[in-house]
Design goal:
Length: 589
């Protein structure tokens, strides 16, 4: 035993010497040590089992004590009585409390948003104008310039000529034209540290497209850097814009960085408008080539800073480097490459519209370019009318101005907020039924009524306006089929029983929107059954491109139309709220 206590595994020489001392062979000594080790191990296991049994018994006792406390509703610490626990009542209490907090939050956010929109962009933000915040100003400059570098790479790289050097294309062809970002290549090339991780619940859309646009590149840059002219250039995309502080001084065409708050919309009352707080940066990147880049400012500074100076709900969407690259072609036109790279809160989107946004069609680059081309064609027609003696062009410009006024009213009636100048406004939603039997379904209708005050000097009475808008989904129906049906003059009587009197219409005149916008026409229509002296004409505009189509029309008296064609738009300034259709793809292919 003394030898075992000193060494449990003796070597062969030690076992031979020990056997000689006690008269045993070495193998017998070896067997004795093996048996001894087994006995000690077994004893250790028994002791461990006893300890585990004791711990198990203690846990069982504690478990039984807790069970007893639950059943008898007593406190484990002091053995006093506790209140009964009802999970249903507790859940109801939490839901009620949550509803109260949510209601309070929405009311406070609405008040805060109104106050901020009225004052936030009329005073300098502290990190821009305060000398004590020069470090924050430098951070903004560094952030904006780094974003511009990324934008230029996205705008110029990724074409097939770069495939050999880049390995994979940065941009991939989209099914309906244009390009979509290759996110695998994008994440491999660019670090995510500049913008941070995508917020939880946000989806991403990134598209690129190019087009030829009338006008010089320098003129376009000046338009984009002027918030009022920029908003007028994209009436179907930009709902409103408010200019903020200038972060970096410079000319409109080179070096200026400005803070802006913009609201963008899609022509449907079901889709919430998209609000972004952006820094816009213009830069001359080469001879006769400019870049105008937008990037969201949300997240650069803490949320507590931004909430104090920017509208609430500011994180509903954020723009990663987006904008346009404009190259002058020296022939009266320029090439514009447009990029939209956005992340948005997908939970705010109706289920029906999610595929449309997810594949980038709702706010795609092609939609911005189509709006730009349309407005530049307007400008070209206006320019041609300035030549003396060009009466036909002057009449065309009269139609163009009326159409612009009509389209602006249509956009606001469908998805825009009612203007604050309108005295009394009421917005209600209700559901109307369509079809019968198993084909019957409910359609949400947005009803807007407002009263426009009359002129006391002219003795005009107040006018009351009503607008009703609804959205329907037509599955397995190509959008172009619907568009062609609605603009077919021979079949208009099948759906227009008011202005067309259920019959076909004839075209009295039209203005085409140029060679780059085939199918976009402004027309004056007349019912073939209207034989009165002062006919009620129909002013109609149809436009179509990959992201959607529009058929918008309004009645206008023949006398008012003649006055507008002669250059006096006052007689047609009070025509009724326009009617029409916004035809959007469903995004499902």
């Amino acid at each position: 035993m003394a030898v075992y206590d000193q060494c449990t595994h003796p070597d062969p020489e030690a076992m031979q010497a020990l056997g000689a001392m006690i008269g045993l062979e070495p193998k017998h000594v070896k067997f004795w040590f093996q048996n001894r080790r087994s006995q000690v191990k077994k004893k250790d296991q028994q002791e461990q089992n006893q300890q585990m049994q004791q711990v198990n018994a203690s846990l069982k006792a504690e478990n039984w004590s807790l069970r007893k406390a639950i059943l008898t509703q007593t406190c484990v610490t002091c053995c006093g009585k506790t209140l009964p626990f009802n999970p249903l009542l507790e859940k109801q209490h939490l839901l009620t409390k949550n509803a109260e907090l949510k209601d309070k939050f929405l009311r406070v956010s609405a008040i805060q948003s109104k106050i901020i929109r009225d004052s936030a962009f009329t005073r300098p933000a502290p990190w821009i104008s305060s000398r004590s915040s020069e470090v924050d100003r430098e951070a903004l400059l560094h952030y904006t310039k780094a974003s511009m570098e990324q934008f230029l790479v996205l705008a110029t790289k990724g074409e097939p000529s770069f495939q050999k050097t880049m390995g994979e294309l940065m941009w991939l062809p989209a099914a309906d034209g244009g390009e979509v970002l290759n996110f695998v290549e994008y994440r491999a090339k660019f670090s995510q540290a500049l913008f941070g991780l995508r917020p939880e619940g946000f989806a991403v859309e990134a598209t690129r497209d190019a087009a030829i646009v009338w006008g010089s590149a320098a003129e376009l840059v000046s338009i984009f850097m002027d918030t009022a002219r920029w908003s007028e250039t994209f009436p179907g995309v930009v709902a409103s814009v408010v200019a903020g502080d200038v972060v970096s001084t410079g000319s409109f065409t080179d070096g200026q960085i400005q803070l802006m708050n913009a609201e963008m919309w899609v022509q449907s009352p079901c889709v919430p408008n998209r609000t972004v707080n952006i820094l816009r940066y213009s830069k001359l990147v080469a001879e006769r080539k400019w870049a105008v880049m937008d990037v969201s400012v949300d997240g650069i500074f803490g949320q507590e800073v931004l909430l104090a100076y920017l509208p609430a709900r500011y994180m509903g969407c954020r723009l990663l480097p987006s904008g346009c690259l404009i190259e002058d072609m020296s022939n009266g036109y320029c090439k514009v490459t447009w990029i939209v790279h956005a992340e948005y809160d997908e939970t705010t989107m109706p289920t029906t519209f999610r595929p449309l946004f997810l594949n980038g069609q709702a706010m795609c680059a092609r939609r911005w370019l189509a709006s730009l081309q349309m407005q530049r064609e307007y400008a070209a027609a206006l320019y041609s009318s300035l030549h003396p003696g060009n009466n036909n062009a002057a009449k065309a410009v009269g139609m163009l101005k009326l159409a612009q006024q009509m389209m602006a009213s249509f956009y606001a009636a469908v998805s825009g907020p009612i203007a604050p100048t309108q005295a009394t406004t009421s917005i209600n939603d209700w559901f109307g039924s369509v079809g019968t039997g198993i084909e019957r379904f409910d359609a949400a209708v947005r009803m807007v009524t407002w009263e426009k005050p009359g002129s006391s000097m002219a003795g005009e009475p107040a006018s009351c306006f009503l607008s009703a808008t609804t959205t329907l989904w037509l599955p397995c129906t190509p959008p172009e089929h619907v568009f062609n049906y609605l603009r077919n003059k021979k079949r208009r009587g099948e759906w227009d029983f008011v202005l067309a009197n259920g019959a076909a219409v004839k075209e009295l005149g039209s203005v085409s929107m140029g060679c780059h916008l085939a199918g976009n026409v402004i027309s004056i229509l007349s019912s073939m059954t209207d034989g009165t002296n002062d006919r009620v004409l129909i002013l109609q505009e149809v436009r179509t491109e990959a992201s959607g189509s529009l058929v918008v029309y309004t009645p206008i008296g023949e006398g008012a139309m003649d006055a507008a064609m002669g250059g006096d738009s006052g007689g047609a300034s009070n025509f009724p709220t326009p009617s029409g259709f916004a035809i959007l793809p469903d995004g499902r292919g």
